[in-house]
Amino acid sequence: MTDKLDNPNAACFNLGVAKESVQAPLSDCVEAAVKDYFEQLDGVTAANLYDMLLAEVEAPLFKATLEHTNGNQSRAAEILGLNRGTLRKKLKNYGL
Questions:
Q1: Per-residue model confidence as pLDDT tens digits over 29-63
Q2: Structural domains of the chain, with CATH
Q3: Ramachandran region of residue 95, left (φ > 0), alpha (ψ -120 to 50) or beta?
């Protein structure tokens, strides 16, 4: 079986992290977290999972990207592939 990091066509692509530093692809972590979430529901019906998951991922993504750009929102928006106005709106929504 080919390692995902060696396969450029794999669903999880190499983000430039040294192979020895990689513990698990983000997609594997997300899948495990969602499965764990469903197991913990204990019969309670799930609702708005998509919005909840996006909020859980977007806020730390934006925070880390802003730290990486030393607070430069234009550069952060470029890195994220977002319009600067969209990024500013999302930052406001998350209180960042």
A1: 889 989 999 999 988 998 999 999 998 899 999 99
A2: 1-44 (no CATH), 47-96 (1.10.10.60)
A3: left
